[in-house]
Design a protein that fits this description.
Length: about 800
């Protein structure tokens, strides 16, 4: 080992010795001479960047001699590019002119953290995630960010995929698309499978951990993900992206754009088609999507219309694989759709959904110091899932038993479809006032309405019944209104940044639920939330700072919490107080951050195993629970061609005084009390690593690793209800070149789980009491062994 280490150092020394010069400078406003903190400075031919500090200064160190192209960009200013020769330490200042045209960054800036905001966040550019965009679910683009765990129902990354951040599932992660809420208004989840290949139309992403800044839509209890789609491209382009690989996975994507026409207009479009058989049995996916966008650029305004949508058909794999099957080696077994006494499976056990989005985005620079951004939006969703049911009671469907040949039929096998048909529409807005580089004020908010129609049909019955085909046995409607207004300010006082943010949110929800007498009637609920936030950042040096913030978040119960309860058992809203303290530094060849968090929950909703007034499983408020931990992330350029990026999260996640109710073979409740246990799906350690080597400017080899420690499947810390830890490694190869008439040809190979680790990234548990003892039935979401995706990118 000592000899190996010595040899490695010897190999690296020539690179280190050659990297001996620096480039530094200051970014200022050309008219006023004021410093511009937070400007992005990029050496384009090395693909490295930094951010100017509070004094507008930047530095790149350890550069070889040669010519470098440096680009500087800053919101509201024209970008500037210089090519400089470096054969000694170099000083290069940039004076930027205010832009005559409004930039589309204003659309999302109101809901984003700025460069020095006192909160934990990660920014991803198109260049960051394009190399990973091979067809897997959108969440996989975020997998290497801190505190993140990603899973796939089908086991191969295509179809239903999901993400947890700091142990929080998608119902507690606020997601916006161009500042417009994406979370489902009723169950509050986010289903990227409904917009397959969305990543091919995305320009940039910001992930905030914890409560973060005020935003539109559902409350952020674990994180918020802010996505911005296609922005202005001045040159015409055509592009094809394709990939193919294991388990019949194939993806085709076509992108076209006109560039800037007549100095004012742009038009962009995308078509995508994806298919995968999936790793789990009967987990195939057929996915299609499109994205159309047209924009008008005036001297002080931008108007953009986005029309996009997707269709998904996925065979159901959402119950995972029984743990016993996994342990016996049958990791692909899927029991959904099994037809009793036949040994066969129903072929159309599928989920089918269409979603269409319409967004009208408008930005206006009212004065050089005052701007407005607003949007009108409409989302139409409709679809169903179909399933085979064995020996269901007709009385459960309101069907009168039929007597045939003297025998009364009270139950039958049947096929049913459960439909959702909904509309979501509203408006978002924000005003920004920036009288100087010391003060930044934002006033924003939104009003949104949701209307959902839930209805269920019987398509077929094995036994004779009195019903007609496509018999509708239930229907109900829901309406939800969501209004919020927030004000945010950042003020620079010397080396100190003071931050304040206040949001008021009102929710009105009408739904079919149970009254005090357990009759099914339309119910109404109104909730009011106040979400204040405050923080401070102190600039230690030109390139490093420390920060601290405290934020309050409130989160409403979801549809099932309301529908499956009566006024006497209705759950309360959840409350979170989030304290964040951190340090970050950014050098030319090194960046790092450490962030400590303490998230104190009141009335967190968890499944206990109890049943409500009408016998449905419910979530119950837990008075006290918390998450506390440390997040680390960093990136270092070890030598000119060698880069290492890594993240690590150490945390403790606890529920206090938890009561679980299980039921025995006679359906009698049995209580189990726990004083202090781990929160479900909350690993104590999550780490990632990406080692990237560029043998030349056009090629990259990356070794990507992910470690997730043991997780519990419920809140009891029971050793028989766990997900084992896992460590999985991938290899990514990329090579780009050009030929006459083609701007770029890129070929890539992604080898997932290169060592064929047998691991499960998610699961569920169903404990019960049998013979006076607790028995457990677990499901695991088994992930595929070594598999690959080869990709081709052609740009004209």
């Amino acid at each position: 080992m000592k000899n190996l280490f010595t040899a490695l150092i010897a190999l690296l020394l020539p690179f280190v010795a050659a990297a001996q010069f620096s480039v530094s400078g200051r970014i200022t406003d050309q008219q006023t001479g004021e410093s511009l903190p937070g400007a992005t400075v990029t050496i384009q031919n090395l693909a490295i960047s930094t951010i100017s500090n509070a004094g507008g200064k930047y530095t790149f160190k350890n550069l070889k001699s040669g010519n470098y192209t440096i680009a500087v960009s800053y919101l509201g200013y024209k970008s500037e590019v210089k090519t400089i020769a470096v054969d000694a330490n170099n000083t290069s200042d940039f004076s930027l002119n205010r832009s005559a045209n409004v930039t589309e960054e204003v659309t999302v800036s109101a809901t984003r953290a700025s460069a020095n905001s006192p909160t934990a966040f990660t920014n991803l550019t198109k260049k960051d995630f394009d190399k990973n965009n091979t067809g897997r679910g959108f969440e996989y683009l975020l997998e290497q960010t801190p505190s993140t765990v990603v899973t796939s129902n089908a086991g191969a990354g295509v179809g239903y995929t999901s993400i947890r951040v700091r142990g929080s599932d998608p119902t507690r992660i606020n997601v916006t698309l161009n500042g417009i809420p994406m979370n489902d208004a009723e169950d509050q989840g986010v289903y990227f499978v409904d917009l397959p290949d969305l990543a091919s139309s995305v320009d940039n992403i910001q992930i905030q951990r914890g409560v973060g800044t005020s935003t539109n839509g559902a409350g952020a209890f674990g994180a918020s993900i802010n996505i911005q789609t296609t922005t202005r491209r001045d040159s015409a382009y055509a592009e094809y992206n394709g990939s193919a690989g294991s388990y019949g996975t194939v993806k085709h994507t076509f992108n076209l754009g006109t560039g800037l026409l007549g100095g004012h207009f742009t038009f962009d479009g995308r078509l995508s088609n994806m298919y995968s058989d999936g790793y789990i049995e009967r987990s195939a996916s057929k996915l299609n999507s499109y994205f159309l966008s047209g924009a008008y650029y005036g001297k002080t305004s931008v108007l953009r219309l986005n029309v996009f949508g997707g269709y998904e058909q996925t065979h159901q794999a959402w119950d995972g694989v029984p743990q016993d099957s996994v342990l016996k080696g049958d990791r692909r077994y899927n029991e959904l759709g099994y037809i009793n006494a036949t040994g066969k499976y129903y072929p159309n056990q599928t989920d089918n959904y269409n979603q269409k989005y319409y967004q009208l985005l408008y930005n206006q620079q009212i004065t050089p110091l005052f701007s407005f951004s607003g949007a009108l939006h409409y989302t139409r969703g409709y679809g169903y899932y179909e399933e085979y049911r064995n020996d269901d009671q007709l009385s459960d469907y309101g069907v009168t038993p039929v007597t045939v040949g003297g025998t009364t039929i009270t139950s039958t096998d049947l096929v049913r479809r459960l439909w959702l048909d909904n509309d979501f529409y509203g408006a978002t807005y924000n005003f920004n006032y920036k009288p100087s580089n010391k003060l930044d004020l934002t006033l924003g908010g939104a009003y949104n309405e949701y209307k959902g129609r839930h209805y269920n049909n019987i398509e077929w019955t094995q036994q004779s019944t009195s019903i007609q085909p496509d018999y509708e046995y239930s229907r109900n409607t829901a309406k939800k209104t969501d209004f919020n207004v927030f004000a945010r300010a950042e003020y620079h006082l010397g080396d100190v940044l003071l931050y304040g943010d206040m949001q008021i949110r009102h929710i009105g929800y009408s739904f079919l639920g149970f009254d005090q007498n357990l009759n099914n009637v339309q119910q109404q609920v109104g909730l009011n939330f106040y979400n204040p936030k405050a923080g401070v950042t102190y600039q230690l040096t030109d390139n490093s700072n420390v920060y601290a913030s405290i934020a309050v978040g409130n989160h409403e119960p979801n549809r099932s919490d309301f529908v499956n309860s009566s006024p006497s058992s209705r759950p309360r809203a959840e409350n979170l107080k989030d304290l964040e303290v951190g340090y970050r530094t950014r050098q030319s060849n090194f960046s790092a951050g450490i962030n400590g968090f303490y998230m104190l929950y009141k009335n967190q909703l968890v499944l206990t195993g109890a049943l409500d007034d009408v016998g449905e499983a419910i979530r119950t408020n837990i008075k006290d629970s918390y998450r506390a931990g440390i997040e680390l992330d960093g990136k270092v350029r070890i030598a000119q061609p060698l880069t290492w990026a890594a993240t690590a999260t150490l945390s403790t996640n606890k529920v206090k005084n938890f009561n679980q109710v299980l039921f025995d073979e006679n359906n009698k409740p049995v209580n189990f009390n726990y004083s202090k246990t781990d929160i479900a799906y909350s690993p104590n350690f999550v780490g990632s690593s990406t080692i990237s080597y560029q043998p030349c400017n056009h090629a990259e080899i990356a070794f990507i690793s992910k470690y997730v420690s043991q997780q519990y499947l419920d809140n009891t810390s029971s050793t028989d209800r766990t997900l084992p830890h896992y460590f999985v490694n991938d290899v990514r190869l990329n090579y780009n070149f050009s030929i006459k008439g083609v701007k770029n040809i890129g070929i890539g190979l992604l080898v997932n789980n290169v060592f064929s680790a047998k691991y499960q990234s998610d699961g569920a548990t169903y404990p019960y009491v049998d013979g006076g003892k607790v028995a457990t039935y677990n499901y695991w979401f088994a992930q595929a062994p070594i598999n690959f995706l080869a990709s081709l990118n052609v740009k004209f």
